[in-house]
Amino acid sequence: MNALSALLIFIYQTADATDATQAAPPVSGSALTDMWHNLGPVAIAVLVILLIASLQSWSIILGKWSAFRRAGTQSKRFLRAFQKADRLQDVAAVSEQFKPSPLVQVFEDTYEEYRHQMEASGEVRSMKALERTAQTAASEALTVMENRMTWLATIGNVATFIGLFGTIMGIVDAFHGLGTSGGATLRAVAPGISEALITTAAGIFVAVPAVMGYNQLTSRLRELGARLDDFGRELLNTIEELNAMPAPTAEEFARQREVPRGLHR
Questions:
Q1: What does the pLDDT look like over 199-219, one tens digit per residue?
Q2: Is the pLDDT of residue 28 over 50?
Q3: CA proximity to 191, closest of 165, 166, 209, 212
Q4: What is the pTM of this model?
Q5: Interatomic CA distance for residues 40 and 85, integer angstroms
Q6: Angle at CA 63, nearest 5°, toward 60 and 69?
């Protein structure tokens, strides 16, 4: 930007001497329209790339925000159902109702491991296996929620550099106009300066929402990760308490797996 500032100062210092006898060109249309017509192919390509990046970033932001909001609502409902239920089988029977919640995946994978151990020996043989299953399920659920977040971070970091590339090319075009015109006139450098200013502003316009959206969504992901860890510990504690009770017979365990009645959201 120092080169651009020096170029503007130089032009304004010499413009009065070289253009004293020239009449001011008529202004047609708005300033933005004139700048758009003066854009070169490089600036147009930069703006098109930034437009695509902006649409992509807003698509990710809105989609993720909606997914996190839906996951948070369903997680609260699932936790209420989990805490009210007397048996894990009751929760398993209604877990499909809360599928958007990542807590459901943690519960289903852990419960499946718990069920296999109970059917094999009538008791929990390895709490470590259940703990690893819960951690793996939480990690997988968090990975799904993180999908496409790297694109948002990339757009936030790269958009300003894409705009800076347009700025540099605009300055190059301005110097080229000075060389071909043979004099430091505003008319010679105006197209290049327009390209530099427009692409710089466009790069900032794309980068700022992407960075803000990424930071906000990352904060929501951290909260979700903490909630997954808390639920995993709560589920394991429940299983430990059930394991301390007298082991049910095979017939009793089969009856417990029957679909319960009357458990709703």
A1: 888 999 999 999 999 999 999
A2: no
A3: 166
A4: 0.71
A5: 67
A6: 130
